[in-house]
Amino acid sequence: MKREEQDILQNTQLKNSPFSVPENYFSSLNKSLTEIPKRSKTNNTRKWVTYTAIAATFALLVAGTGILLKWDDNNSYNGYAVAEELTEDDLVEYLIYTGVDLEDFEDLELY
Amino acid sequence: MTDKEIIYLYNKGQRELAFNLIVQNYSERIYQHIRRFVYSHDDADDLTQEVFIKIWAALPSFRADAQLFTWIYRIATNEAINFLRKQKLRTMFSLDSSDSILVRKLQQDEYFNGDKIQAELQKAIIKLPEKQRVVFNLRYFDEMKYEDIAEITGTSVGALKASYHHAYNKIKETLLNL
Fold it and tell me: ipTM of the predicted structure?
């Protein structure tokens, strides 16, 4: 019985919350909390815009690289095409013009 | 409005209205629940916001057979415990223990209106292990049923009864020795 009397936790006053809050705190808290769905929508829109921008940038990069490579292909030196258009006489004339002796070629080992 | 009616509204597409009703019914209780763990008003305010952001995000996955009330308390309890764990990790590199930080927050809190015994009760709760602290707060202050606490914590009723018994006796002894 004495032990029961000493059980201070049985004092119901102790169960009352000792924590207070600033004035009107809960009404402003509720106001802020009820805006969560709207904020969430805005955040989702922002995320969507960001992801779309990233995707668009990536697509532009890929497309740009493709266009550049294509342009490079069209404008690059194509040795085979040039060689097909040249005749043997053209080559001889070019060698005479540059001063290379035909014997120099005969000494070359071609792999 | 009951929790079941709120969930019915949500499932009918009235999502924002249902969420606003959850805010109305639970914001104060959840704030007080979190405050009992973290003590500082500012921390409790931040965590309450986080809890309701998570509730809104997780509502689509809420199972109809679950209790809304225990589901919300589970989110809030996890949030508070994670906050304390992070705080504990940070104190590994400082001279202060996480308990002493909480005691200091309690002493410095301008919104603590308790008397000397209430302050000592809170200090005794701070010293409890995490699980005992959770069950003590939910059982002693919120007078929750063990079955509900079991749903919130994912622990068996038997284990919870034992934890509460240990916690209760420790605190009783501490307050007796004042």
Answer: 0.85
